[in-house]
Amino acid sequence: MSDKPEIWFYHLERSTLDQVLPTLLEKTLERGWRALIKSSHSHRLDDVDEALWTYRDDSFLPHGRADQDHAARQPVLLSESGENLNGAQALFIVDDAELGATEGFERCFIIFDGRDEPALQHARGRWKTLKGQGANLAYWKQSDEGRWEKAA
């Protein structure tokens, strides 16, 4: 494990967070990793919680909330504080939540809505700051067909 995780920016243009996040979480769990989802808004975590139960008719993603029992045992943990109670290797940042300390994570995902101008400006500022700090960055955006392509 390196001291500096990969930090991947996901620029949403054609899809919503509720469409993209479950797929990214499935890939994370397939790697044998745990995930921590951080948002500074409890209502957003409520929405994500609901989406992870219902995103597919034949499946759900096992998850829990940091403020509930057995947080440490959850493969996917939803948190406002971002404290890594479940020993996650992947950190997902939504709604402009602060990235905070990244030590201990293998990869951080910063997911933002490119159709929301304040979110876009915030992501650009964050990219510039992290780049200046020598972070290991990648930028992903959706093609016209909806596939993710590495743009930087």
TrEMBL record:
Domain of life: Bacteria
Enzyme class: transferase
Protein keywords: Nucleotidyltransferase, Transferase
Pfam families named in the record: DNA_pol3_chi
SUPFAM superfamilies in UniProt: DNA polymerase III chi subunit
GO molecular function per UniProt: DNA-directed DNA polymerase activity
InterPro entries: DNA_pol3_chi (IPR007459), PolIII_chi_sf (IPR036768)
Gene3D superfamilies, alphabetized: DNA polymerase III subunit chi (3.40.50.10110)
EC number(s) given by UniProt: 2.7.7.7
Stated name of the protein: DNA polymerase III subunit chi
Organism: Brevundimonas nasdae
